[in-house]
Structure formats: structure tokens, C-alpha cells
TrEMBL record:
The keyword Translocase does not apply. This is ADP-ribosylation factor-like protein 3. Gene3D superfamilies: P-loop containing nucleotide triphosphate hydrolases (3.40.50.300). Mg(2+) binds at T127, T144. It is a peripheral membrane protein.
Length: 278
């Protein structure tokens, strides 16, 4: 039949079929291959054994050629992985060492010392605020004739706070304390409207001082616990604080007696010290 003859003419020769099977069979490992050859050639001559035991090469058989290639590939991959791991490990060690040295330096670095200057009219509440910051008793406070100084820790800083008496006869001595001031804290009695003008003039003079140029300014609108106290916004307007443009400034409503608002003011101070010291 035409059909069968065409089929038989297209089918491969028995010899070529066997050659095709040899090339596509799953490659055995060199160890199995060596065992098989050794057992099959036990009766052959020693020369034949030594030839068979030689590691398969491309000249011997195409199947063993694939086996060699896959073992070589595995070997190369292993070497590559080992090198990669060594590189990653050394990078990680470098990063860890860097982090450790940063931590050590942070631990060793002493606290930054800063100088805060409390000024304001007499009876404004400067000494009461200072004692409140230092968590001291505020029930027996007398007008300051000279100055008070206290060191307070806050946000990683050592705050050296200078509180200078605000009586009229003492004010000419304020200038002796301007040097190296990091933040100026001006305290106002928010309930004493009659003295807003006086305190405004004193503040304006301070802002003209060369040694206080660009020093950040915090204004504590103190005594907010009193019903007669002006709100901080009203005080800011009375003192025309919006005209201050040569420095960072902030008005903070507070009460030195109840401590309300005091910490918020100090947080602003510490934040602005950081910006200044950068
Ligand atoms: N109700 C109220 N009274 C306060 C407040 N702060 C201070 N005082 C009172 O105000 C008075 C004056 O307080 P001081 O702390 O001595 O004021 P000062 O600014 O240090 O005054 P000088 O030392 O004279 O410059 C004291 O009787 C305090 O108890 C406050 O927030 N609320
Ligand atoms: Mg005082």
C-alpha cells in the first residue's frame, strides 16, 4: 500500500535509531558510570580497564559529555555562591563595625552645655519658673537682688539657666550676662497690663544688643492661671512681636505655679538649640 510504503520509507534506519537513543538518554553520574564500566570489563585486559576508568571526555561518548558539563556547572555555581557569600559577609561586617563605632561615640560624647538667659521685669515670675524647671519648692520666693543659676538636664542638653533680677536698679547689669547666650527667655506677667509698655520697651532694647543678635527668643506669657491674665495672642499683639524678623521667636502661654505650658516652652528651646548648633 502507498500509505505503508511512505511510512516505511520515512522511518529511521535501525542504526540511526540506536545512535539517537544514546544521545538523548539521561546522563549517569561519573561514579555510577565508573562502577558500571568496571564491572562489565572485569574480564577484559588491564589496558581496557584503565581506558574505561579514565574520566569521560567528549571523544568517548556524547552522554558522558553532558554529565561532565553539568558537574562543571555545579562546581562553578558553588564557587560563585561561596564568593558571593564572602563578599556579603565582609560588607555586613563593615556595616556592623560602623554602627558600633557610632554608638560608642554617642555614648562617650558629653552632654552639650547650653546657656539660657532669663530676663524680664521684676515680679514677672522668672525665679518661680527656674525653680519649677528644677523641680524645687516654689512656696518661698523672694525678689532676686543679683542672679540665680541652675543646671537642668533636658533632651540630652545640660541647660545652664541664668535668672537675673528684674528690678529697675538691676537692669543696667543685664548686659554683663549677654555673652555666649544660646537662647533668650523673656518672662512677662500676663496679668499686669499696666506694665505691658514698660516690658515692651525693655524687650526692644534687648533685641538691639549686638551680643544677643540672632539669638532665638522665647517669650513666656506667664501667670495664665490668673483670670486677669491676657491670652498669649493678645500679649503678642500689644508687644508688636510680629515685627521681630531677625531671629526665631515664640510666645508660650504658661503658669510657673501650675507648670502648665512650661515644658512646651522648653521643648521649643531645645529644638532651636539643635538648629542653631548644626
Ligand atoms: N499666680 C501666679 N503667680 C506667680 C506665677 N509665677 C510667679 N508668681 C508669683 O509672682 C511673684 C514674683 O515671682 P518671682 O519668681 O519672684 O518673679 P521674678 O521675675 O523672679 O522677680 P525678680 O526676682 O524681682 O526679678 C511671686 O509671688 C510668685 O509666687 C504664676 O504663674 N502664677
Ligand atoms: Mg527673681
Amino acid at each position: 500500500m502507498r500509505c505503508s510504503s511512505s511510512l516505511s520509507s520515512s522511518s529511521p534506519e535501525p542504526s540511526s535509531m540506536s545512535s539517537w537513543q544514546t544521545h538523548t538518554s539521561i546522563p549517569e553520574s561519573p561514579v555510577t558510570w565508573r562502577r558500571r564500566v568496571m564491572s562489565s570489563s572485569s574480564s577484559s585486559s588491564s589496558a581496557a580497564i584503565s581506558a574505561a576508568c579514565a574520566f569521560p571526555s567528549t571523544r568517548h561518548c556524547a552522554g558522558t559529555d553532558i554529565a561532565t558539563a553539568s558537574w562543571q556547572e555545579l562546581w562553578h555555581r558553588g564557587v560563585w555562591l561561596a564568593q558571593l557569600w564572602r563578599k556579603c559577609w565582609s560588607s555586613l561586617r563593615r556595616v556592623f563595625r560602623g554602627l558600633l563605632s557610632i554608638l560608642r561615640r554617642l555614648k562617650q560624647s558629653p552632654e552639650q552645655e547650653v546657656r539660657l538667659l532669663f530676663l524680664g521685669l521684676d515680679n514677672a515670675g522668672k525665679t518661680t519658673l527656674l525653680k519649677q524647671l528644677a523641680a524645687e519648692d516654689i512656696s518661698h520666693i523672694t525678689p532676686t537682688q543679683g542672679f540665680n543659676i541652675k543646671s537642668v538636664q533636658s533632651s540630652g542638653f545640660k541647660l545652664n539657666v541664668w535668672d537675673i533680677g528684674g528690678q529697675r536698679k538691676i537692669r543696667p547689669y543685664w548686659r554683663n550676662y549677654f555673652e555666649d547666650t544660646d537662647v533668650l527667655i523673656y518672662v512677662i506677667d500676663s496679668s499686669d497690663r499696666k506694665r505691658f509698655e514698660e516690658t515692651s520697651l525693655e524687650l526692644a532694647e534687648l533685641l538691639e544688643e549686638e551680643k544677643l543678635a540672632a539669638v532665638p527668643l522665647l517669650i513666656f506669657a506667664n501667670k495664665q492661671d490668673l483670670v486677669t491674665a491676657s491670652p498669649a495672642s493678645e500679649l503678642a499683639e500689644s508687644l508688636s512681636l510680629h515685627t521681630i524678623r531677625d531671629r526665631m521667636w515664640q510666645v508660650q502661654a504658661c503658669s510657673a505655679v501650675t507648670a502648665e505650658g512650661v515644658q512646651d516652652g522648653m521643648t521649643w528651646v531645645c529644638r532651636n538649640i539643635t538648629l542653631r548648633k548644626k
